[in-house]
Design brief:
Elements: E1 4-8, H1 12-20, E2 25-28, H2 32-35, H3 47-60, E3 65-69, H4 72-75, H5 79-91, E4 96-100, H6 104-115, E5 119-127, E6 139-140, H7 144-157, E7 161-165, H8 169-180, E8 187-191, E9 199-202, H9 204-207, H10 225-241
Parallel strand pairs: 1-2, 1-9, 2-3, 3-4, 4-5, 5-7, 7-8, 8-9
Antiparallel strand pairs: 5-6
Helix pairs in contact: 1-3, 5-6
The structure holds 3-methyl-2-oxobutanoic acid.
């Protein structure tokens, strides 16, 4: 089976380009907190900010399956309220809502949604939303047994797929094989988890070299847009100063027109 492709988008034009490129799934990830809004952690993004981006992406990619991340601010609410926040994404056109971590509270929320027929994606391994209080680092589960137990719990809760972020390659491959052999169809999407997953996801701003403050080891840059942008802005400034822009003829109006 062909590997599944997923990329993030937070705005209208990126979504248009992803749809034109026929990327299988677009993720409105809460990574937008860092790479689009400049927050330090994904915990800081609000539901409203996520929703504005989600709606722009849906307008740009009306035909593609879109996954919306349920932000931290929603995940920490009582499940009756978190459920309503998730519903808001489905009502705005999300095909799938992604919920990070496999804690009992998240599993209960996932089950509440899947029992009603909504599609949910899980996310285990490195989970940036779970920033620990004392060392300020996101939670990072690498233990084989724990990962298998979390993946099975997510399967039981009814997820249609799960992101495996920075899961060691051989564990990601074993997990994928084990999940793909289950009676209900389910797939894995890897990020920094090797080639053995059912598909791959990257943060588009990393892939395009638009976010260049740091580069995770697993990222491949297919463009250098930050440099291209800076060069274009410098060229514009020079041309404005040197009276090269706007060009002379674009200033003249013909009276007959
Ligand atoms: O928020 C995000 O972009 C994500 C991906 C890194 C999987 O969750």
């Amino acid at each position: 089976m062909a590997k599944i492709s997923m990329l993030t988008a937070y705005d209208f034009n990126t979504a248009r380009a992803l749809e034109e490129a026929q990327i299988d799934y677009i993720l409105v990830g809460d990574s937008l907190a860092n790479v689009f809004l400049g927050y330090k952690t994904t915990q800081e993004v609000s539901l409203e900010e996520m929703m504005i981006c989600f709606k722009a992406v849906r307008r740009g990619a009306p035909k593609t399956k879109i996954v919306a991340d349920l932000p931290y601010v929603s995940v920490i609410k009582p499940n009756s309220e978190a459920y309503k926040d998730a519903l808001a994404f489905y009502e705005a056109g999300a095909n799938i809502v992604k919920i990070e971590n496999a804690e009992p509270k998240s599993l209960e929320l996932i089950k509440m949604l899947t029992d009603e027929g909504y599609q949910v994606m899980g996310h285990i391994g490195y989970t940036p939303q779970s920033v620990e209080k004392f060392n300020g680092k996101p939670s990072y589960v690498k233990d084989r047994e724990l990962l298998f137990s979390e993946a099975n719990k997510l399967y039981e809760a009814g997820v249609m797929a799960m992101v495996l972020e920075m899961v060691p390659d051989e564990i990601a491959e074993e997990l994928t094989e084990s999940l793909e052999s289950k009676s209900r169809e389910i797939f894995t999407i890897g990020i920094g988890a090797g080639q053995g997953t059912s598909g791959q996801v990257l943060v588009t701003d990393d892939l395009l070299g638009r976010f260049n403050l740091f580069k995770p080891r697993f990222v491949k840059r297919y463009a250098e847009q930050y440099q291209d942008m800076t060069r274009a802005f410098q060229d514009y400034k020079s041309e404005v100063q040197e009276l090269k822009f706007p060009e002379q003829q674009s200033l003249s109006f013909s009276k007959n027109k």
